[in-house]
Amino acid sequence: MQERLKELQTEALEKISTAADLKELNDIRVSYLGKKGPITEVLKGMGKLSAEERPKMGALANEVRDSIAAGIEEKQKRLEEAAVQEKLAAEKIDVTLPGRPVKTGNHHPLTRIIEEIEDLFIGMGYTVAEGPEVEKDYYNFEALNLPKGHPARDMQDSFYITEEILLRTHTSPVQARTMEKHEGKGPVKIICPGKVYRRDNDDATHSHQFMQIEGLVVDENIRMTDLKGTLQVFAKKMFGEDREIRLRPSFFPFTEPSVEMDISCKICGGKGCSVCKGTGWIEILGAGMVHPNVLEMAGFDSKKYTGFAFGMGPERIAMLKYGVDDIRHFYTNDVRFLKQFSIHE
Ligand code: DAH
């Protein structure tokens, strides 16, 4: 019996030492120390022993059991410790690694230009007005002194939806709509940014959809000098104090007289270069004194009220300001282009 107990002890301790994980160790515990285990089995034969041997054997059995239990406990500690170490190694974080930057969005360069222009005019007392992109022929053309069949309609090749409805070709219809709302009473002082559409083939300087910003001031005693002064402030704020402007006579059906405004070329300082096509000047916008017909059609007394208007393309302004050589960059959403205008980097 004594030998059998010793044998069991050696066998168990050996198994414990080679146990690879906690599950295996638990199986050993159950098989050796459990009620149906071999030690219990051996102890059942105690009855056959003499009175002197019995306590000795009992003590030995306890010793064997204790040593197996101690062996298991010891091994369990080691296995648990190893598991913790393994987990730590697997989940190790190198806090010295540089962080991954979070990518942030950013205003589109055109939005930035438009907001800059809006802010400038808001600072001069203007309010921002809006109008529909799907517009009536009446507001897009007729109310702007472009009756049906007027040859100047050809300047703005249009997307018609029905005979009377089209995608607006410019932001000027907002002039007519706003004046109408004022019911013949001044002052009117608005700027109106928005999308416009023309049947153009897209190339480096044309896009079938682009932006415009319209300006309109109507009041008593508004003169051409007010227009010139306003445009001068705008040009200097937008392009730099050192820029000059010049007004050239032009034609728009909704203004009389009409002008086009140029700014002096910054690149060559007026000497002439490829950007200004050798002229020293760069065309920026169209403008003029609101045509009396336009005032009258919108319900204003053209004997009492006068006004000026202007219209510009923010893409063109952004292209000049940022040196962009193709209008399509604004609409093709190439992040490599857009990222250059990020204020976060
Ligand atoms: N609507 C014109 C265009 O799209 C731009 C323009 C010119 C607007 C003169 C105006 C203006 O208000 O006075 O070409």
Automatic annotation (TrEMBL):
<keyword id="KW-0030">Aminoacyl-tRNA synthetase</keyword>
<feature type="domain" description="Aminoacyl-transfer RNA synthetases class-II family profile">
    <location>
        <begin position="111"/>
        <end position="340"/>
    </location>
</feature>
<comment type="subunit">
    <text>Tetramer of two alpha and two beta subunits.</text>
</comment>
<dbReference type="InterPro" id="IPR002319">
    <property type="entry name" value="Phenylalanyl-tRNA_Synthase"/>
</dbReference>
<feature type="binding site">
    <location>
        <position position="256"/>
    </location>
    <ligand>
        <name>Mg(2+)</name>
    </ligand>
</feature>
<dbReference type="GO" id="GO:0005524">
    <property type="term" value="F:ATP binding"/>
</dbReference>
<keyword id="KW-0479">Metal-binding</keyword>
<dbReference type="InterPro" id="IPR022911">
    <property type="entry name" value="Phe_tRNA_ligase_alpha1_bac"/>
</dbReference>
<comment type="similarity">
    <text>Belongs to the class-II aminoacyl-tRNA synthetase family. Phe-tRNA synthetase alpha subunit type 1 subfamily.</text>
</comment>
<dbReference type="GO" id="GO:0005737">
    <property type="term" value="C:cytoplasm"/>
</dbReference>
<dbReference type="InterPro" id="IPR006195">
    <property type="entry name" value="aa-tRNA-synth_II"/>
</dbReference>
<dbReference type="GO" id="GO:0004826">
    <property type="term" value="F:phenylalanine-tRNA ligase activity"/>
</dbReference>
<dbReference type="InterPro" id="IPR045864">
    <property type="entry name" value="aa-tRNA-synth_II/BPL/LPL"/>
</dbReference>
<dbReference type="Pfam" id="PF01409">
    <property type="entry name" value="tRNA-synt_2d"/>
</dbReference>
<keyword id="KW-0963">Cytoplasm</keyword>
<keyword id="KW-0436">Ligase</keyword>
<dbReference type="Pfam" id="PF02912">
    <property type="entry name" value="Phe_tRNA-synt_N"/>
</dbReference>
<dbReference type="GO" id="GO:0000287">
    <property type="term" value="F:magnesium ion binding"/>
</dbReference>
<dbReference type="InterPro" id="IPR010978">
    <property type="entry name" value="tRNA-bd_arm"/>
</dbReference>
<dbReference type="InterPro" id="IPR004188">
    <property type="entry name" value="Phe-tRNA_ligase_II_N"/>
</dbReference>
<dbReference type="GO" id="GO:0140096">
    <property type="term" value="F:catalytic activity, acting on a protein"/>
</dbReference>
<keyword id="KW-0460">Magnesium</keyword>
<dbReference type="InterPro" id="IPR004529">
    <property type="entry name" value="Phe-tRNA-synth_IIc_asu"/>
</dbReference>
<protein>
    <recommendedName>
        <fullName>Phenylalanine--tRNA ligase alpha subunit</fullName>
        <ecNumber>6.1.1.20</ecNumber>
    </recommendedName>
</protein>
<dbReference type="GO" id="GO:0006432">
    <property type="term" value="P:phenylalanyl-tRNA aminoacylation"/>
</dbReference>
<keyword id="KW-0547">Nucleotide-binding</keyword>
<keyword id="KW-0648">Protein biosynthesis</keyword>
<dbReference type="GO" id="GO:0016740">
    <property type="term" value="F:transferase activity"/>
</dbReference>
<dbReference type="GO" id="GO:0000049">
    <property type="term" value="F:tRNA binding"/>
</dbReference>
<keyword id="KW-0067">ATP-binding</keyword>
